[in-house]
Amino acid sequence: MSKRDLKKYLTELSKEQLEEQLIELYEKFAPVKVYYDFVFNPKEDKLLQESKVKISHEYFPIKKPNAKWRPKAKMRRSVAQKIIKHFIMLGVDPFIIADLMFYNIEIAQTYSANNYIKQELFYKSIFNSFEQAVNFVISNGILIEFKARIEMIHQEILQQKWKNKYDFEAILDKIDL
Q1: CA distances from 51 to 87, 91, 97, 134 (A)
Q2: Are the C-beta atoms of 85 and 61 separated by less than 8 Å?
Q3: Is this structure's pTM higher than 0.85?
Q4: CA atoms 61, 65, 67, 69: torsion sign
Q5: What is the pLDDT of residue 177?
Q6: Collapsed DSSP state (helix, strand, coil) of residue 163
Q7: What is the distance between the alpha carbons of residues 17 and 3, in angstroms, rounded to a whole number?
Q8: What is the rounded CA–CA span in Å between residue 138 and residue 132?
Q9: Tens digits of per-residue pLDDT, 60-74?
Q10: b vs e for 94-112, b when ≥16 Cβ sit within 10 Å of the residue's Cβ?
């Protein structure tokens, strides 16, 4: 069904029929419920804090009470990417999305500062996150507000002597930092 056909169909419905369909969608499909819950009660700060906790647990998992061993860090970039995509879909403020994007990189750097990581994929993955974050702040016109964090990330990369530091520097050269 095209968007035009949908509009035509919706104009033919009475207000009551339209309300019934929306309520049915709300009850039947979780993404619709999540969307309307967010629209009517955004609580962006709470959502941001919960998301930061999820991301940090990827690198610093919490030992469960009475457990004899501490879980190993999974370091999955996909967890943060999924949350960021969800924030974009909901229409969360770009400052909050950018904050989360840079937080993801910063927590990964904190982990790598204290742990030897031999997988090259980790560094490539963080570079991809960095490139996406920089492109996001540029496209949303908020680069200036995040310049200090971008520079701090770059300084940390130099301090930790990441092998792909030149890839990061190429991006910084493009934005004239």
Answers
A1: 10, 15, 11, 20
A2: no
A3: no
A4: positive
A5: 62
A6: coil
A7: 19
A8: 10
A9: 988 777 767 778 888
A10: beebbbbbbbbbebbbebb
